[in-house]
Amino acid sequence: MRCFLLALAVLLAGCGQGASSGRVPRQDGGADVGHLAQPDGQSSSETGARLDSAPDRVSTIDRGSGPDRAADLVTSPDVAADTTAGADMAVDLSAVADLGAGPDLTADASAAADSVVEGDDADGSADGGCTLADNISVGKLPAISFLTYHHDQPWIEDYLQAVAAAFPAIATYKVNGKSVQSRDIPYLIINATCQASPPAIFVNGTHHGDEPSSTESVLAIPDYLLRNSATDASIRSLLGTYAFYVLPLVNPDGFALNTRENASGLDINRDYSYPLRSDADSFQTVEAQHMKALQEGVGFHAAIAYHSGAQEVLWPWCYQADATADASFFTSAGQKTAQAMSFTVYQQSWDDYPTQGEYIDFAYWRSHSLAATFEVSTNKAPSAALLAGVVDSACKGTFAWIQAVSDHDQGRLHALSATAAARRRFPLTAPFDGTNRLE
């Protein structure tokens, strides 16, 4: 009996040491990856301290209130006004025990980004070493607020790393290459499906650096999904079905410079290939090249590109008037999403006005991603008083779009009536040249 107790004590001591490290052993014999290293060699606790001192990290760029849209493009009078109220999404960090080891989601972006489920389950259940969506401890979520300021890139990187550190069993911080000026392009993977290769949803913002409300909208998605999973069975179901890739800064140089274009003066969201333009004649920007690698490596089932300058829900095609083969889905999903966001405008992007080389056309054409553009706010840089409402609306729209994707996957998306399904067009009140899409 004493031998048994001694062996048990040794075993428990070993488990305690493993849990305290918060790192995930790799099966390939390489270095542990855990939640990845913090910037400048800092620990996850130091990252938390940096997040708590967020006001000191606020960007020094004066974005002002921003133009509603450029002079040659005025939003439709049908467009609803910006929401002025929004939920306070700030919460305090909670000191909760580490979840322990979990799936290694660090596959290269150019590959299929399969995760490897390994390690012991945090709660001791026999589910293959992963954390199911209904077991997520939302008290561990890092604090984030959209009430007072826009977040700069160092804060964004710290926050995404803090989420990954808090949920190492389901979240991984990664970098999708570097920009022209060698800034990291960070993103977060959330995979609570207990599957190695689940269908994946991609949300991305800041193709245009002078549209910070798109950045903030994407940045809010991890908190929105994980926090609401505690009380919303529909969100838990989505987390249990899809992996989520969250990339707030496609264009970090433009974000730092407050310019639409990247540091080379090129519009990233005109640089993608589409059915009338080859890859060889596209992808002149390094940022679009990185997006191409991630898109093709994962093959996203659905994708949302967030922009600002209007309040609209748009979908392919951008380059031609002909509808896609999925027009019925897009119209129905667009209607549901616009309603969730209190928007009135939802239409094929061409009907907004024609463009060539947009991300959503590339994603739909190359990967058959059920892709959309969300124009989240008429003002590209809403005031602090409006920002929380814009972010809340964008989160609700995101959930509505992904729920429509899920319903479509399960054959539950109700077909619209002939009248409702008729192609909607919302004429603009100012002329445009048909080539320079400004959202």
3D architecture notes:
33% of the residues lie in helices and 11% in strands. With 439 residues, the chain is α/β, with parallel strands linked by helices. It has an 8-stranded mixed β-sheet, sandwiched between helices. Strand 6, helix 9 and strand 7 form a beta-alpha-beta unit. Helix 2 packs across helix 3. The longest helix has 26 residues. The N terminus and C terminus are likely disordered.
Element layout with pairings:
Layout: H1 2-21, H2 44-52, H3 153-166, E1 171-178, E2 184-190, E3 200-205, H4 212-219, H5 221-228, H6 233-239, E4 243-247, H7 252-257, H8 286-298, E5 302-307, E6 310-315, H9 327-341, E7 345-348, H10 349-352, H11 359-367, E8 370-377, H12 384-409, H13 418-421
Parallel strand pairs: 3-4, 3-5, 5-8, 6-7
Antiparallel strand pairs: 1-2, 2-4, 6-8
Helix pairs in contact: 2-3, 4-12, 9-12
Key structural traits:
alpha/beta; Aminopeptidase; globular; 439 residues; disordered C terminus; single chain
Entry summary:
With 439 residues, the chain is α/β, with parallel strands linked by helices. It is 33% helix and 11% strand.
CATH superfamily: Zn peptidases
Secondary-structure-based class equals: alpha/beta
Strand order of the largest sheet: 1-2-4-3-5-8-6-7
CATH class category label? Alpha Beta
Rg (C-alpha, Å): 22 Å
Low-confidence stretches: 1-50, 52-127, 429-437
Reported CATH architecture: 3-Layer(aba) Sandwich
